[in-house]
Amino acid sequence: MQDGNPTGWRRTLRSRAGLTVIAVVILAGISAVVASTPGVFHASVGSAGPNMGQTGHALGSSAASTAASTPTDASTTATTPFQTQVKAAMHSPATSGHLVIETANLALTVAKPATIADKITQAVNEQGGFVQSLNELTGSGTATDNLVVRVPEQGFGGFLKAVKGLGTVQSFSQTGQDVTDQHQALVTQLTQLQSEATAFTRLYDKAQAMSDMIQIQQSLSDVNTQILSVNAQLHQINRSVQLATVNITLTTGPVVVNHPANRMWTAFTRSLAGMEKSGTALLVFVAWLLPWSVLAAVAWWVYRFWVKLRKKTTS
Questions:
Q1: How far apart are CA 82 and CA 173, in angstroms?
Q2: How are strands ordered across the β-sheet holding 100-109?
């Protein structure tokens, strides 16, 4: 047939060659996509067994949470010397190889707490931190602002130095909790759980009996739950390490000097207050006891009257 019709044979050959070239191009494109996106290939492999999509998501979250992030430079230029100082301090390189959760408590006396609080808030926001809470209190001629701010750990020391320069330091304390061992233990536990999830997936693919498949599925679900829990703990530790906590109290008001005369006057006023409280308590007690006293007197009078009446009747 081919010898009798050479034109048809050539057309068939050209069509097959064209289809072969198209198939090769498609396969090459798929290979390039898979090679350039290993995360997608990993997700497709993980979805072979039940709940493995969840496991793949958890492993990806773990990789993201365990990686330390460096805050980017703010696009807005600082407008005050304090903000410029904080901007430079917040980008100082970290010197410790340990994972440490930093916490500081700082109390300052300033002229205008609200103004200083605004400066601190703006500087922290520009450097990738945030204000966790802010409380303003006024009364008795004083004003107090309490701030809890989270600042990037890289510039923690420089930030404290800059804030101290805004007023008079009344008190300061700083603590550091080393969580390196705890973090490493969680990473080791996560690696073991990932291995267990992989093993259960392989067992599920090879299982023949329905009872075995159900048991393996339950075990895999338990492992996935543990992976999510460990991931959450790692995320919390990383977040606490990356963002240090600073409790700041800004106060203004009259300064009372505690002279000996003031101490004597204080003792005298406290004594008068104690006498007032004691007298009030005594009056309350008498008021509570009065009805019972009247009742007791009436009962005694009735009793004496009955005794006299009985004596008369017997005599």
A1: 22
A2: 130-139, 142-152, 243-252, 100-109, 168-178
